Give the backbone structure.
Amino acid sequence: MAQSPRYLQIKQYLNDKIQTRTWPPGFKIPTEIELSEQFSVSRMTANKAIRDLVGDGLLKRTPRLGTFVCHKKAESPLMEIRNIADEVRNRGHDYSSQIISQNSVEAKDDVALRIGVRNGTMIYFTQIVHYENGVPIQLEERWVNPDFAPQYLDQDFTAQTPNEYLVQTCPLSDIEHTVEAIIPINRITSLLEMNEGEPCLLLNRRTWSDKNLISTALLYHPGNKYKLSSRTKV
């Protein structure tokens, strides 16, 4: 480190503070002037270190207020299904969940159409909030055809996620995804601890095993805490 350029030393110092959460998300970092005095460098040198971390998405400048540690967005692949609990733990974070609902319901209108049953058919429904380090990052509302997963409601979904159980019980053959940005209703914002009027990402998902349509789900993510990614070979 002693042989590296001074701006890289400052960048490494700032990065270490962020990664160890000594400076948690939302923390206001020292000013350029304070950093230049601390490291005995020019303000331009301190500015370059900060600009690099802004470009990396770790810091955010707010005019007239200062520079703050970003709330880093969780990320999920769009073109495949992964267990959200594994995603969170693979990032080195703590995963937890809260079961809001787990029961049988009548499939009506759009839900009946999406899961491929007649209107009024009894199906399974779960509503679960998934947390990363105690912060809600996804509200999962899932409807399951009991013909293909008859033991679904008997599961402890605090010990395993619905996705984990269904993948084991009904190996996936096809998935369908659509994504849209929405302003959620109050019920959703409350469960995800969002501010009124704050946008979220809504992922509509349907899954098949062989030729059987197993489940349909609505996955809500706070827009400022989550992103979806896709990578395709050409």
Q: What stands out?
A: Helices lie at 6-19, 32-39, 43-55, 84-90, 109-115, 162-169, 186-191. Residues 83 and 154 are 19 Å apart (CA to CA). The domain at 6-69 is CATH 1.10.10.10 (Arc Repressor Mutant, subunit A).
